[in-house]
Amino acid sequence: MLEPEARDARPGELPSPYLLFLGDTVEPGYAKTAFGLRDWARERCVGEATLPGATVTTGLDRLTPAEAHARGARSMVIGVANRGGIIPESWTASLVEALEAGLDIVAGMHSRLADIPALQALANRLGRRLIDIRTPPTIIPTGTGARRSGKRVLTVGTDCALGKKYTALVLARGLQSRGIDAQFRASGQTGIMIAGEGIPIDAVVSDFLAGAAEMLSPAAAPDHVDVIEGQGSLFHPSYAGVSLGLLHGSQPDLFVVCHDPTRAGILGYPGRPLPSIEEVIAATIELGRVTNPRIRCAGISLNTSGLTDDQAQAELDATEARTGLPTADPMRGGPALERLLDACAQ
Amino acid sequence: MLEPEARDARPGELPSPYLLFLGDTVEPGYAKTAFGLRDWARERCVGEATLPGATVTTGLDRLTPAEAHARGARSMVIGVANRGGIIPESWTASLVEALEAGLDIVAGMHSRLADIPALQALANRLGRRLIDIRTPPTIIPTGTGARRSGKRVLTVGTDCALGKKYTALVLARGLQSRGIDAQFRASGQTGIMIAGEGIPIDAVVSDFLAGAAEMLSPAAAPDHVDVIEGQGSLFHPSYAGVSLGLLHGSQPDLFVVCHDPTRAGILGYPGRPLPSIEEVIAATIELGRVTNPRIRCAGISLNTSGLTDDQAQAELDATEARTGLPTADPMRGGPALERLLDACAQ
Lengths: 346, 346
Prior knowledge:
Two copies of one chain form a homodimer.
Chain A (H helix, E strand, L loop, with lengths): L3 H5 L9 E4 L10 H9 L4 E5 L15 H6 L4 E4 L13 H9 L3 E4 L9 H10 L3 E3 L18 E7 L6 H14 L4 E4 L3 H7 L13 H8 L8 E4 L11 H11 L3 E6 L17 H12 L7 E7 L6 H15 L3 E2 L5 H12 L1
Parallel strand pairs in A: 1-2, 1-3, 3-4, 4-5, 6-8, 6-9, 7-8, 9-10, 10-11
Helix pairs in contact in A: 2-7, 4-5, 8-9
């Protein structure tokens, strides 16, 4: 059921540089893709485009599609993801404008660009491409649970959108800089755009979840380390199934719990508290044992972007003292990150 | 992406009576669909068809497709499910024979009959239907986790294929016979064939798992009870994600743990032990609290079909004494089942 375009859309071939489209987003947590590309593929981003009402910004130049095209952009990337992955009608005029300005469109949502007839017709007429990146491989086996060679580290979380991808990217690069044969494994659309490969786990048919995760981090040399981007949370009311299938298929030796100490509750679900770090550790070990009896927690990654330096240090120290586990904000680096890398390199 | 045929294939319209196709199956656990239809829709089954090598039987008359057609059969139902839901090539000759004998074909596997070109071409030529029942609704929202009215009972398990569907069917009928407004909610292909409606949860795209479960047991009158067919196990290396999404979306008030005391390990995964009933209870409560803080275990359903009457009674007594929970084999009935129904009716 794959469209040829989608099958051809290997991220390595994505038309860049990009214009990052933010829609009318007011919730920074929903702009993960735009921020991820800005932070990890900055050289491929020429600017951002928004609709009236947007308060979220990447800090890049705000450009019209025509201005972006004049600066060399070859595609507009939809840089926001809302619940359910819908492409709202209010975006259509901007998408049309981008096509008319000479840009292809790249999206990683469940709604497929190619399923919007007017857009597809216009793209066909203008010779532009609509590239839907959230398309899993056509053939995925069910999981086997069989132990495979190589080492695996999985990032897990107390919620969505709080640092699992960034943590995995920093850990993979940090291990590589120590001479370890480490690789970032992308399980979501932004990670796939950054890495150039991966599997959009949440777009896989449920019965094949663990099997897809097994494909994502295949058997490897004994000293190879896959650092796998986690998804969701075992305690998330909508997406926990994805998290559990990814955990079982990844059969990680080590996991790192990602948490945002400033988040009051589950993002987008008012009144729902986050699980504690300790609850996530306990549940991850209990369920992770099914496919890897030796699973253990390597440490904790705190997203302290909402704190001052002093507040962040106090939070990191308190969490490390309370849990007895190396605790770092990967984006702040420093000795704490080195201790977390030590734990992941064991 | 739904074929019109699949969209039309509401189970209530399935062409019956059925001939039950068992392939060359030697593992009774894989013949759930055939046994389910024999036990719960016996009036719609005229016989069974097998390939050489099959050792599994429903006990119904063994018929060729032509003989079944002569007895009034209108379709051949694929009554076995293997890992991954593949339709093996060794079945093709039998499927062709059925079409040529005048039967439609009904399947509930991930592999779609309609995707086998030779079969589709033959069906078109002969005017027969290929009905793929494992097709979820086209539009499913993501889960919200919002509390909804009505009561829900979910069957969960220590493994696949050990009695979650039968237990839910018996409990729903038992509650109905007490005058309670209870309804069986089918989450798998056999249940859907029996009930005439439902959602094949394991065929839903992962991100929408909990949302599909929310659709399956919608808000209802305060005293209405949905008895929801569980899937897999939280401790299953391949399918646990499905189980967790179904748990969260069902937000059950009560759950019943289904277990087969004679099963040595996870079906089809040699060397992998089953979780204990107690582990399943603890994990179900811990994770189920995310969407229903009042979740609790109503009791235990033991599949004692492999035991003598005395052995079964001893096992039921021992389990009830150990756990302090009502423990019954729903297929044996008796006072134990009444106690389990008491617990579910609270």
